[in-house]
Design a protein that fits this description.
By secondary structure, the protein is an alpha/beta fold. Helices cover about 30% and strands about 20% of the residues. The chain has helices spanning about 35-45, 65-70, 145-155, 180-185, 195-200, 210-220, 245-250, 265-270, 285-295, 310-320, 330-340; strands spanning about 5, 15-20, 25, 45-50, 75-80, 90, 95-100, 100-105, 115-120, 125, 130, 135, 165, 175-180, 240, 260, 280, 300-305, 325-330. It binds fe (ii) ion (FE2).
């Protein structure tokens, strides 16, 4: 059997339905449309097996806890995703089953560190990595034009030329393309080499979209819009970073910092484990618990999460509440694990 691909939104922000017989997957669902998806799945008696995200989106609201529950399927994202609601983290080369078919994961960083493409028989869902006649911008935090050039030219352009390309966005009315057409016609990749691509992407001077921080903060933190009583955005860049090795050294000292872990309880005891002695306060409970943490406001506090995004938000909240010596663990527990530093579970 071959996986069938259909676009559901009919707008420039695309959600795809993949079906293999009665087994279905949704790629990049938009929160506001969850009820439409649910009705469609019911009408066609499809069983939703997976929600696949191509990356941490900045332009629309992803599923929150409630929307996720309504759809009742696990969310899949790349290992580097900062999302607190992911159920299954994947890496390049992983294969997911959909009915009797397979979905292969290609790691294609550049637009974001966690960007992936999902390859099915004869088609590839390219997220914001490769667009029809374009490519996703690389000027957001974590963006990397060189990595994107490598991913597109080495991984996507290595696919058979007739592979159908389904992008996450299109602003010009296109619905799909092919690898061959993009190889020949995509102006972004008609540059002579990687260096020229980096220069091109650096010269685009794209305006920052209106709602980007609103959507990104919500998607990264799991907060609802309007749920927090202060502007998270402008402040998140401010907290001083601390590297994992430096934190490990500081923890051996007598006046070691307090480690505040703002992940979900399942993550605290999950695969990545936690730093010995860390205090767990999930980000969505932090504001409520601030009074109890007041005793630490003059002490060194290092905030930790999975990838360093939620902890940046927490740092901003603590600083606003008068904490003076707050640092953000750069790269989060992923970096801690990559350096093989000790954890508890
Ligand atoms: Fe994107």
């Amino acid at each position: 059997m071959t996986i069938r691909v259909e676009e559901l939104n009919g707008t420039n922000c695309k959600t795809y339905l993949l079906t293999s017989g009665k087994h279905a997957a949704l790629v990049d669902p938009v929160r506001e449309r969850v009820e439409d998806y649910r009705v469609l799945l019911t009408e066609r008696t499809l069983e939703l097996a997976l929600v696949l995200e191509t990356h941490m989106h900045a332009d629309h609201l992803m599923l929150n806890r409630e929307a996720k529950q309504r759809l009742g399927a696990p969310i899949v994202m790349h290992r580097l995703s900062p999302s607190p609601l992911t159920d299954r983290y994947v890496v390049g080369g992983d294969v997911l089953a959909l009915g009797s078919d397979q979905i292969r994961v290609l790691h294609t960083p550049g637009h974001t560190p966690d960007s992936v493409c999902y390859l099915v028989d004869g088609a590839v869902l390219t997220g914001d990595t490769l667009l029809v006649g374009g490519s996703g911008r690389t000027d957001f935090p974590g963006g990397d034009a060189g990595a994107q050039y490598d991913a597109v030219t080495e991984k996507l352009f290595a696919l058979p030329e007739d592979t159908v390309v389904y992008p996450a966005h299109d602003y010009n009315g296109h619905t799909s393309s092919t690898i061959g057409a993009e190889k020949r016609n995509n102006p972004r990749f008609s540059v002579p080499n990687r260096t020229a691509y980096i220069a091109l992407m650096g010269s685009l001077g794209l305006p920052v979209p209106d709602r980007i921080q609103q959507a990104l903060q919500v998607n990264q933190s799991g907060f609802e819009p309007g749920e927090v009583s202060f502007p998270l955005v402008a402040e998140t860049a401010r907290a001083a970073p601390i590297g994992a090795n430096e934190l490990a050294a500081r923890l051996r000292e007598r006046d070691a910092p307090m480690v505040l872990d703002v992940r979900e309880p399942e993550e605290f005891v999950g695969e990545l484990g936690h730093i010995s002695g860390a205090l767990l306060v999930p980000l969505d409970l932090l504001e409520l618990r601030l009074p109890k943490l007041a005793g630490y406001s003059e002490r060194d506090v290092v905030v930790v999460c999975r990838a360093g995004a939620r902890s940046a938000t927490a740092c901003a909240m603590l600083e606003r509440a008068g904490f003076r010596r707050v640092q953000n663990l750069e790269g989060g527990m992923l970096q801690w694990q990559d350096l093989a530093l000790p954890v508890q579970r």
